[in-house]
Amino acid sequence: MFCSGFGGYGGMFLAMGFRMLIFIALIVLAFKLFKNYTNKSNDAMKILNEKFAGGEITQEEYLKRKSVLSQKN
């Protein structure tokens, strides 16, 4: 009497599974975006350290740029 093409309550289980897949996809996307953001800020600091170590910038410039990068985090 209440049975549909999915055998009664099958549609609810499919909808729940679909919602779980969307939820998991959103979590994975959030982790990837966070990872990319942290890598970019670490790369900028790495480049700054290399320039200072190579003598391309003075200590004053290094400290000023380092404080700017630290404020962005």
From TrEMBL:
Write one Pfam family the protein is assigned to: SHOCT
- Any idea where the SHOCT domain is? 43-69
UniProt cross-references to InterPro entries, sorted A to Z: SHOCT
Assigned keywords, A-Z: Membrane, Transmembrane, Transmembrane helix
Membrane-spanning regions, if any? 6-31
Respond yes or no to whether keyword Transmembrane helix is given for this record.
Answer: yes
Q: What is this protein called?
A: Membrane protein
Organism this protein belongs to:
Clostridium beijerinckii
